[in-house]
Amino acid sequence: MINTFKNYYYYCYYQFDYCIYLHADSWGGICKIGDKQSPINIKLGEIQSRFLPEICHHDEYEIKQKFMIKNTGHTVQLALQNKSAKPFIHLGYGGKYVFEQLHFHWDAEHEFDGKRADLEMHMVHYNKKYNSFSKALTEPDGLAVLAVFFDRTESKKPIKNFFNSITDSLQYLEKPNEYVPLDKESKSKNLYALTDFLPDDVSSYIIYNGSLTTPPCHENVQWVIFLNRYYVSDSTLKSLRTTKGEDGNNIESNYRPVQKLNGRNVFHRLSEKNGFPLGPLPGVVYPVNVVYCGNCTLPIEYCEYYPEYEKCKQWLEKNLPNEFEKVVKVGDKEEEGGGEEEKKRQKRGGKGIVKPKKKEEVNKKICVSRAPRGKKKSVTVVVGLSTFDIDLKVASKFFGTKFACGSSVTGDDEIVIQGDVKDDLFDVIPEKWPEIDVDFIEDLGDLKR
Predict the structure, then answer these.
(1) The Alpha-carbonic anhydrase domain covers which part of the protein (predicted)?
(2) pLDDT of the residue at 320
(3) Which residues pair with 152 in a beta bridge?
C-alpha cells in the first residue's frame, strides 16, 4: 500500500494530473509557496471598480480558421492549425498578447461568492514582445488568460456552436496526447474565429494578477474574467467527463481548488453599459488631482501592475510617504524606523518629488538593403540598430560569425555585411535580439551606395 501511494505521488506531482488521493494540494515549488496563486474566490461585494480600457483584438482574431483538438491527459485543448497565424488582443494597460491555445476545466476553477460554474474555458495568450510562448512563460508580464464561464442547461437555451464540434470530435480522442482536426468527419468542416469563443459583450470584466493553475504555476498571469455567462449542454459535459486521463480513467473533474488572495486587488471594469457615471459626481471636489509615480509614470494606484513594482514602492516611500501608506498592500510594507528618520522624510508636495526627465523620442526602425559591389557581387547594409541601444561593434561581429563573411561598422548607425543576406536578417535579428519585432524591420530593396 505504501509503495502504491509513493508511485501515485510521483505520478501526481510530475504529471500534475488532478489526482483522486492527493489532488492539487500536493503540488510543490511555487504552486505551494507562492502568494499570487490562481484560481481565487471572487467576492463580488468586495471588488473595486475602476475605469479600465476596453479589450480590443487584431483583425486576425475575426478570421475563420481551422482548429486542432487534443486530449492532453488532463484537459481538452484547442489550437490553430496554422502555426504561422499570430492573432492577438490588446489589453490597453498591458500591451499585445498573442493567442496560444484554449482549454477547459470542469467544474469551473474560479468561484463567485463561493459558487462554481459548471465549466470554465481559458484562452491562453503570451506577450507579443517575447515572440514565443516558451520565452514569455517566465517573464513577469509574460502571460494573459481570458476566462469564460458556462452553466449546465437541459432546456433549449442558446449554446455556442463550437460545443457541437467539440462533442463530435471527442470520440476520436480515446487516449491521452491524441489530436485530430476539429470536425474531423463532419461534411460541413466548420471554421471558427477566435471571437466565436468570446462573449458577445466583452465590456464587463474583472482583472487581477495571478498564476497558471497547473504546474509550474508561474505567477505572471494577467487574468481577465468575463462576467457574461453562456450555457453548455449535458451531453457536452458528459463527453468531457469521459475523456481518458493519463492513468486510463475518466477525467471526472480537473479543477484546482481556490487559493488565498493574500491582499491582492481585484478590479471590476466600469463602463457606460455597466453603470459608469458620466459627468461630475456629487461630493467630489474638482479638479481631481492625480498623483503619478516617478518610476513607472502611472497613477500610483496602478503601480502594482508594473513589472518592477519593488522600484515603485521604493520611490513612493522616499518621495510620497503619506501615499505609500495608502497604496502598499497589507503585510507588503517593510518595518520602518521611527524618531529622527521619520522627521527627515520629505512630505507630499515637498522638493523630494523628482520629475522624470523626458527622453527625446527616437523613431525605432531598422532598414535593410542590398547594394551592388562590382559587377557580380553585392553587400547588405543594416541601418538603425542603435535606436534599440544595440552595440554596433558587437552586432557587426555577430553578423560576421553568423554568415561566415566580412562585416564592419561603416557609419554612426550603419553596418555593411559582405554578401546578400538581406532576407535572412528578418529571422536572424529578432532571434538574436527578442526586443526587436519583425514589424520594426523595413526592406528598402536594392540601393546604390
Answers:
(1) 14-270
(2) 86
(3) 232
The domain limits of the chain are 10-269, 286-330, 366-446
Tell me which amino acid residue 372 is: P
Q: How many CA atoms lie within 13 A of 279 on its CB side?
A: 1
Please name the fold of domain 366-446: Translation Initiation Factor Eif1 (3.30.780)
Q: Cα(281)–Cα(50) distance, rounded to whole angstroms?
A: 15
Contact 128, 143 (CB under 8 A): no
pLDDT of residue 35: 93
Close Cβ partners of 197 (under 8 Å, ≥ 6 residues apart): 102, 121, 123, 148, 160, 162
User: Locate cell 505609500: which residue?
Assistant: 324
Between CA 17 and CA 253 the distance in angstroms is 10
Residues 143-159 have pLDDT tens digits of 999 999 999 987 766 67
- Residue 270 one-letter amino acid: L
Residues 94 and 210: their CA atoms lie apart, in Å, by: 14
Q: For the whole model, what pTM was predicted?
A: 0.59
Q: Is 330 a residue whose pLDDT tops 70?
A: no
At residue 438, the pLDDT reads 86
Closest CA to 151 of 140, 143, 162, 160: 160
Contacts of 401 (CB under 8 A, 6+ apart): none
Q: Which fold has domain 10-269?
A: Carbonic Anhydrase II (3.10.200)
